Amino acid sequence: MQPRISVITLGVEDLAKARSFYEAMGWTGAQQPDDEVCFFQAGAMVLGLWSALGGHGAPGIELAYNVRAPEEVADVLACAARAGATIVRPSEVAPWGGTTGAFADLDGYVWEIAHNPGWTLHEDGTVEI
Prior knowledge:
alpha+beta; 2,3-Dihydroxybiphenyl 1,2-Dioxygenase, domain 1; 7-stranded mixed beta sheet; 36% strand
């Protein structure tokens, strides 16, 4: 397992306003698959804005670790549990077609572990939307 942060997701109250703000700040190329979330390429990482984040256990921020294969989601969650993490969401197929699960670290920070078949995960761990 190669430790990395693939995505930082910020919880937002109004997705349209938040997206407009970041676009006014010069962020370009937003991808918005639905009316709850949008993603911006941020160098080797991705910045996400998600209006539903607060309802998923994280008070305003969620980190993500993307993996290369669906079965790796469960493997990383098991590793986190052995290290003392609390599993927040077990590995499951997501409505958007990938596989996802989440754990909270010892201080309660939530990490999503995800395989997104629509994104490219390069050998060095960088992610491209």
